[in-house]
C-alpha cells in the first residue's frame, strides 16, 4: 500500500514537491501554483470533492491546467427518498459525461447507510463505470471489493479489514506539515507492511482456495522500495 498526502487545494504545493504523488481536498479556488508549469511533474493521484454541487465542482477541477488527477472522489449520502435517488443518478450521468475521454475515473465515497441503496441504484441503472473510495466508515466491504479504487484514512487508522482483500490502493492521509506527514505515514507503513497475497483468497473456478506457496522464497530485491 502506498500512502500519499491529502492536501488542501489552498495550500502552497512547494513543500510537497519532493514527496511525489499527492491527493487534493478541493476547497474552492486553488492556490495558483498548482497550475504552474513548474509543478507540472507533481502527480495528483486523487481530488476529493466537497460533494455539495458535485458536477460544478468536477468541472472546476477538470478545466484546470496541469492537474490531471487519476480519480475524482465524490461523497455520497444515503438518498432520502426516490427523488433524491433520481437526482443522484442524474448527477452521476453528468459526471461520467464530463470525465469521458479525460483519463480520470469516478470513485464514490459512500457515507454510513448509503451502501445498500446506492448499490441498488447503480445496479438498476446498470452503471459499472464508477468505483469506490475506502474510508473508516465503509460498510459491506465484500460488496465493494472488486471496485475499490482508492482510499483515505486518518493517522493511526486500523487498516486490517483491508488485508483480507489485499492492499491494492493508494491511501490518502490528511496532511499539513511534510515532516509530521512523514512520521505518520511511516507509522502506518510499519503497522501495515505490504502483502503479496490477501489473508483470505476467493475460491478458484475449480473450487480450490488460492493460497501462497510456502516453498516460494523471494529475493532480497523485494524488500527494497
Fourth-tier CATH superfamily name: Divalent-metal-dependent TIM barrel enzymes
Q: What is the top-level CATH class? A: Alpha Beta
Strand order in space, largest sheet: 1-2-3-4-5-6-7-8
N/C terminus separation: 12 Å
Portion of residues in beta strands equals 15-25%
- In terms of per-residue confidence, which ranges show pLDDT below 50 for 5 or more consecutive residues? 201-210, 216-223
Describe this structure in words.
With 225 residues, this protein is of the alpha/beta class. It has a single domain (2-200), classed as Alpha-Beta Barrel (TIM Barrel), CATH 3.20.20. 26% of the residues lie in helices and 19% in strands. It contains six helices and eight strands. Helix 1 runs parallel beside helix 2. The protein is globular and about 45 Å long. The model is unreliable at 201-210 and 216-223 (pLDDT under 50).
Write a brief structural summary:
With 225 residues, the protein is of the alpha/beta class. It has helices spanning 54-62, 82-99, 115-124, 141-144, 160-163, 178-191, and strands at residues 2-8, 22-25, 44-48, 71-76, 105-110, 130-134, 148-152, 170-174. It has a single domain (2-200), classed as Alpha-Beta Barrel (TIM Barrel).
Lay out the secondary structure:
Layout: E1 2-8, E2 22-25, E3 44-48, H1 54-62, E4 71-76, H2 82-99, E5 105-110, H3 115-124, E6 130-134, H4 141-144, E7 148-152, H5 160-163, E8 170-174, H6 178-191
Parallel strand pairs: 1-2, 1-8, 2-3, 3-4, 4-5, 5-6, 6-7, 7-8
Helix pairs in contact: 1-2
